[in-house]
Amino acid sequence: MATAFTESEKEQIRKKLMEAAEDCLGKYGVKKTTVDQLVQMAGISKGAFYQFFPSKEILFFKVLEEFQVSLMAEGMSVQQASGERTAEAFSEFLYSIYQRVRHSFLMNIIQNGEMDLLMRKIPVEEIARHHSFDDLIAQNLFSDFNIGSDPHVAAASLRAIFLSMLHVKEIGEEHFDGALEMLIHGIALQLMGEDAGDE
Question: What's the rounded Cα separation, in Å, for the pair 186 and 195?
Fold first, then answer.
């Protein structure tokens, strides 16, 4: 019989599972992390795990989403404090977000080529929901910067830049940061309708 948890216990267990998943993704990656490891770190049974998440991949996906939300919230609070609404400010904002990603637990699975593996294990409807979620974040971000471009195309452009981090070696590690900065700046100029000569 499934263990009945109080709402407070559920919240604590979910938090512990998310923290364990982030830790394991950074150390071991997707393939080498097991449900057994996760439940041991969270202090619950393997059976109880499935009351919270249908698979370790869905748990990992939720961790990635929460990381994305926290990054954007942090970045937006810094940006709002500065008050700048130029393409240059937008570029710096995006570049700082991508750099945070590059130096996070997420890079372990990106460098090990496991992002594609993880995404293949996520149901199509979850991916579609996440893209809608990306679009919503983009709309809020673009609204703050007074950007009038199609939010779906703009969000897809930002996703494309993010996906370039899957190919750092192929692009060239030595020049990747410079190329990333250039791509971001080019998109920022287009989204904000500024010419390179305006700055």
Answer: 10
Which structure tokens are listed for 172? 């060239």
At 138-168, the pLDDT tens digits run: 777 777 776 766 777 877 888 888 888 878 8
Question: pTM for this one?
Answer: 0.77
**3 vs 129, residue with greater confidence:** 129
Joined together, the tokens standing for residue 194 give 């500024």
The candidate with the shortest Cα–Cα distance to 166, out of 92, 91, 101, 122, is 101
Counting beta carbons within 10 angstroms of the beta carbon of residue 169, is it exposed (0 to 12), middle (13 to 18) or buried (19 or more)?
Answer: exposed
Q: Which two tokens stand for residue 47?
A: 């059976």
Domain spans, the chain: 55-198
Distances (CA, A) of 33 to 5, 9, 107: 25, 24, 16
- Taking Cα atoms as reference points, which of 165, 150, 40 lies closest to residue 95? 165
CATH tag, 55-198: 1.10.357
